[in-house]
Amino acid sequence: MIKTKNLLLRPWEEEDAKCLYHFAKNPNIGPIAGWPPHESVEDSLNIIRTIFSKKETYAVIKDDIPIGCVGLLFHPDTNHWWGDDSAELGYWIGEEYWGRGFATEAAEPLIEIAFEKYGVKQIYASYRIDNPVSGRVLEKLGFKYYANLTNTNYNNETFEEIAMKLEK
Q1: Are 25 and 39 in contact (CB under 8 A)?
Q2: Are the beta carbons of 128 and 82 closer than 8 angstroms?
Q3: Most exposed residue of 8, 94, 145, 166, measured as fewest CB within 10 angstroms of its CB?
Q4: CB of 107 within 8 A of CB of 137?
């Protein structure tokens, strides 16, 4: 577990499925993060057991409520191949908690973990062009523009994204 000023980062638990579903069913969350809205509590439970069970993936807890997720991804679990000695940062926060700096606050300790514990030389993150708020989170964390990319979503639709990079 990791404590920040306002948050607790801890591994996801199966008991979090109902709360995860509450936030992840919102069509304003998943699609801009690259995944479909959850359709049931069972859907959310499956995500906890698979995707959210990977190392360095945490529930973002505010007042005992899991309000989002933050994680470091390592190849082959990244969205792109970024090269050796790299990690990818991913995050999302429930819409009711937007605009309070929680994504930035939750990501800061993971950046330190990536550089210190795993010895990565650079961390990458990407965001959809239609989600500039995510880009501002990355800028606050010190990320710099890396490249424009074209990607494909879960419906096999292409979209444009901006990749950012943070070097140690």
Answers
A1: yes
A2: no
A3: 145
A4: yes
- pLDDT tens-place string over residues 133-143: 999 999 999 99
CA-based R_g, the chain, Å? 15
CB 145 within 8 A of CB 162: yes
- Asked if 86 and 126 count as a contact pair (C-beta separation under 8 A), the reply is no
Q: Give the chain as a DSSP string.
A: -EE-SS-EEE---GGGHHHHHHHHT-TTTHHHHTSPPP-SHHHHHHHHHTGGGSTTEEEEEETTEEEEEEEEE-TTSSSS---TTEEEEEEEE-GGGTTSSHHHHHHHHHHHHHHHTS--SEEEEEEETT-HHHHHHHHHTT-EEEEEEEEE-TTS-EEEEEEEEEE-
CA distance 73 to 94: 20
Question: Model confidence over 103-142: pLDDT tens digits?
Answer: 999 999 999 999 999 999 999 999 999 899 999 999 999 9
The pTM (predicted TM-score) of the whole model is 0.90
CA distance 132 to 149: 15
